[in-house]
UniProtKB/TrEMBL annotation:
This is PH domain-containing protein. Residues 9-94 form the PH domain. Pfam families: PH. GO terms for molecular function: structural molecule activity. GO terms for cellular component: dystrophin-associated glycoprotein complex.
Length: 146
């Protein structure tokens, strides 16, 4: 796979190696050849913290490469990688593996709590696979199912 490194149509592409390792999405400059190399990735994201967005083969592409997609993160700086596979089959296989990785990670996690504010009070938003979504008031510990 290759990664486009600028918005310029004459942009420079660099080879990248992408691995889905459990719930992690890892991007490497060179293929990891040992288990130690797996800890030396350029970028490491949780699969549930990234989105993949396929770029249609039309004028929205940055150049003439096909099979392009964005790997977008929920990082504060809005990090996104413009990547390209060599064939449509490789892109499809990656998308399938990515969705399976996200599903398995969410099922294994079961619940996730996010700090938030509701009506000016500190609160927690809980996403739970079995019990659904709930919002609770932190000072009183009172929970309301949404």
């Amino acid at each position: 796979m290759s990664e486009g490194l600028s918005e310029d149509p004459k942009q420079k592409w660099e080879p990248r190696f992408l691995i889905l390792k459990g719930g992690d999405v890892c991007l490497f400059e060179s293929p990891p050849l040992s288990s130690e190399d797996l800890n030396k990735c350029l970028y490491l994201y949780k699969s549930y913290d990234v989105a993949i967005k396929q770029v249609p083969n039309d004028s929205r592409r940055l150049d003439k490469r096909e099979n392009c997609f964005y790997l977008e993160t929920c990082m504060a700086d809005g990090t996104r990688h413009y990547l390209s596979f060599e064939t449509p089959q490789m892109l499809e296989a990656f998308e399938t593996a990515y969705h399976k990785s996200v599903y398995a990670t969410v099922i294994a996690m079961q619940t996730r709590t996010f700090a938030c504010s509701y009506e000016g009070r500190p609160s927690g938003l809980v996403l739970d696979i079995k019990q659904g979504i709930s919002l609770y008031d932190i000072p009183t510990k009172v929970s309301n199912l949404c």
